[in-house]
Design a protein that fits this description.
Structural class: mainly alpha
Largest sheet: none
Number of helices: 5
Helix content: over 70%
Radius of gyration: 27 Å
Keywords: Membrane, Transmembrane, Transmembrane helix
Strand content: under 5%
Number of domains: 1
Distance between the termini: 65 Å
Oligomer: single chain
Shape: rod-shaped
């Protein structure tokens, strides 16, 4: 009987060892797959942020906004700029992957959230201008509003540079 129970224990022990080894192999493979997915997400976010940053700099949005502020203060215009802003978050890498972004290494998720939250705020400001919600205000109020938008714009560009640097560090660029 002892012989039989030793054999059973050996078989069970071998089964446990094989099961543990298989699970370790699967876990390691899944971890590598997860890490590749996060690197791909980081690369996509980097491309999106860089493209948007370069677009707003290329189109000189900041300079145009400053010109409107100066014109309002000097009384040369009563208008606020119209941008015909359309924002479709579903087409954004950030929003399409919102549930996965938290898995990126710290402080990337926090910085991404700050960046995209401010960008959304600026988009809402532009949409308010497009809708004429500031048209009835006096020039002083319009200029003050646009100065806040301009400060937010500057902060967003700085934050974009910071996030790009974090993503590049994570990607080994």
């Amino acid at each position: 009987m002892d012989f039989l129970s030793d054999d059973i224990l050996k078989i069970l022990g071998g089964g446990v060892v094989a099961s543990v080894m298989t699970n370790l192999f699967i876990s390691r493979r899944e971890t590598k797959k997860h890490n590749r997915m996060l690197k791909g997400l980081a690369a996509s976010l980097h491309a999106e942020i860089k493209a948007k940053r370069n677009e707003v700099i290329h189109h000189k949005y900041r300079e145009a906004l400053q010109e409107f502020i100066d014109a309002l203060k000097a009384g040369r215009t009563n208008e606020v700029p119209k941008y015909n802003t359309h924002n479709d978050p579903a087409k954004s890498v950030y929003y399409a992957n919102i549930t996965t972004i938290g898995h990126l290494p710290k402080p990337i998720p926090e910085k991404l959230t700050e960046l995209y939250s401010m960008a959304d705020s600026i988009t809402l400001d532009y949409q308010a201008m497009d809708a004429g919600k500031w048209d009835h205000r006096d020039n002083k109020d319009k200029a003050e509003f646009l100065e806040v938008v301009l400060r937010n714009y500057d902060w967003t560009i700085e934050k974009a540079d910071d996030v790009l640097s974090e993503l590049e560090s994570y990607l080994g660029k």
